[in-house]
Amino acid sequence: MQLFIKRDDLLHPEGDEYFCGNKWRKLKYNLIKARAEGHQQLLTFGGAFSNHIAAVASAGQLFGFKTIGIIRGEAQVSLNPTLQHAEAMGMRLVYWDRARYREKENPAAIAALKKSFGSFYLLPEGGTNALALQGVGELVSELRAQIKLDHQTYLTLSCGTGGTMAGVILALQGQANVIGFPALKGDFLQTEIENLLLQPGKKLTSWSLQTTYHFGGYAKHQAELLSFMHLFKANNDIKLDPIYTGKLGFGVHDLIQKGYFLTGSTIIMIHTGGLQGIKGFQQRFPGFLDL
Questions:
Q1: What pTM was computed for the model?
Q2: Which of 65, 69, 226, 236 is the most buried (most CB within 10 A)?
């Protein structure tokens, strides 16, 4: 058995940890389209600690777009590190309460935003759309150039909205196995990913979700997970974040210990980035995570 780590956390411009990994890949072709269509500003949605919000803010600064972030929840007197960064990058922050936020995909809500802010290129929450899946697919092309991918290969990754996982599955077309580790509890991602994978006359089945490694969800923490992250950093000099990749690393390690993977398997752990989330976690839970 072999274990490799695909270091997409190192995929970023000029050391910007806010715009890296899967966020870089998901935004790539959207930014190209926005530029080609002559848009001057980007608008998107996200929570107060969203990796996507941070990435869009950085991308706007880097490529000369104005950015607007519709943030779920009430305005904060003191901004967390994610929103501090977004504001420093020039993003205009607009707060919607949870009831209004649930209407974010309503055409009337989008029309009202255009009336308020003028023309913009719309990026969905989390950044997942057809162009995002195309960008994520390039990760698989890179892996094919580096390593043999077959039925004894397992690509493992953390999941938020399921877009990155869907992009990997589509690019593989059943060539290897994909295992996703959702950051949230519940089985809703199964349907979300199935909808993203819809192809006429073809059903892709070489994928599964491990739903028991969420550790309570986004704003939760458990000593077992944090201890693993500290040990992983000490042994490998690689940081994981407590929201996504830490759960992935813990889950992969646990499955190996339980004999889940067959002898001779190759496991590829995709480090999707998200390290900016460490600062927000440290602010909410001082003293629990020192990386």
A1: 0.91
A2: 69
